[in-house]
Specification:
Blueprint lengths: L3 H9 L12 H11 L5 H4 L8 H10 L6 H14 L3 E7 L2 E2 L4 E2 L6 E7 L5
Antiparallel strand pairs: 1-4, 2-3
Helix pairs in contact: 4-5
Length: 120
Amino acid sequence: MNDLNTLFRKRIGIPQHETITFEMLDHILEKTAIAIPFENICIITKNANDFTQENLINKILIRNEGGLCYDLNGILYLFLMKNGFNVFLVRGVIFNSTTYGWSPTGRTHVSILLSHNGHT
């Protein structure tokens, strides 16, 4: 399997030798948002794959594509985990505060929770 840490760093432009710290996460998030676009081409073309580490690496880091929240947050979660962060991937549903209703698409979103110094 390809080295996720090396490929992710190359994709977002972070040196291989640089230690990733909590204090630099805002920088990591910014570089990730710039380098990896939010897009839904796989949904439009009906070419979506299972949500696995291998598929995320292939799509985002080998083929240099973007993705939906579960692709983007999934690959970022794996990168943070590989760099020693205490992270959790959680599934969620969108709440519309205007209509006070839940999204009809259901639990189609993922987010990352990070625990640092006893805080999540």
